[in-house]
Amino acid sequence: MSAASCLLTEDQFLCSICLDVFTDPVTIPCGHNFCKACITQHWKVNVSSQCPNCNKRFSTRPELKVNTFISEMAAHSSEQQAAKPGEVPCDVCTGTRLKALKSCLVCLNSYCETHLEPHLTRPGLKRHQLIDPVENLEDRMCTKHDKLLELFCKTDQMCVCALCTVLDHKNHDVVPLKEEYEGKKAELEKTDDEIQQMIQKRRLKIQEIKHSVELSEGDADREIAGGVQVFTALKESVERSQAELIHTIKEKQRKTEKQAEGFIKELEQEICELKKRSTEVAQLSLSEDHLHLLQRSRTLKAAPPTKNWTGVRVSPPSHEGTVRRALNQLEETLSNQMKKLLEIALKRVQQSAVDVTLDPDTAHPKLILSDDGKQVKLGDVKKNLPDNPERFDTGVNVLAKQSFSSGRFYFEVQVKGKTKWDLGVVRESINRKRNIILSPQKGFWTICLMNENQYYALDDPPVRLSLRSGPQKVGVFVDYEEGLVSFHDVDAAALIYSFTGCCFTEKLYPFFGLGRNVGGKNSAPLIISPVNHTE
Question: Is the pTM higher than 0.85?
Answer without folding.
Answer: no
